[in-house]
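Researcher: Let's try something more involved. This one mixes different molecule types, so please make sure each is placed in the same coordinate frame as the others.
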Amino acid sequence: MNLLKILTYPDSFLTRTAKPVEKIDQSVQTIIDKMIVTMYESQGVGLAAVQVGIDMRLIICDVSQAKGEKKPQVFINPEIVSCSGKAVSENEGCLSLPDFRADVKRAASVFVVGLNQKGESLEVEANGLLSMALQHEIDHLNGVLFIDRISCLKRNFYKKKIAKQLKHKKDKKHKKKNWL
Ligand code: NI
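Model: All components are placed in one shared frame. Result:
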């Protein structure tokens, strides 16, 4: 199965608000299957459809991987209906923000409703890593990245670093052209 390409910051697709899934048909099942393979291959614990260029409110996550088992969870049109407590998501990372990690202030627990892969209604009360993963992935559906939830100073540090890398790439490309 072909892996999906993961979009990275500053791709503007990552800042959009994703559209709800209207119909869970075969094409959606195929997207889910591909997303699951892509997530495991990239060693991620979660992935939102917008990260692979698909405009759908659809996320997958698997926080059991640390124990060596695979239990992917699919959430279609997920919504956080309530949250409680405060927690720091330590050393959070994102497949769309390579080489960067930071502590993120989040809710300790969340109550999420949505649909599962079969279109059945789903209700999950999440704590710990699953709570952090759900908050992170649902943020993606609203165009929010975890760098939007850290201090300005840290965010600007990362933005500058990426801008520098992109400029370097461009310069290199330009140089190459001159030699051809
Ligand atoms: Ni992410």
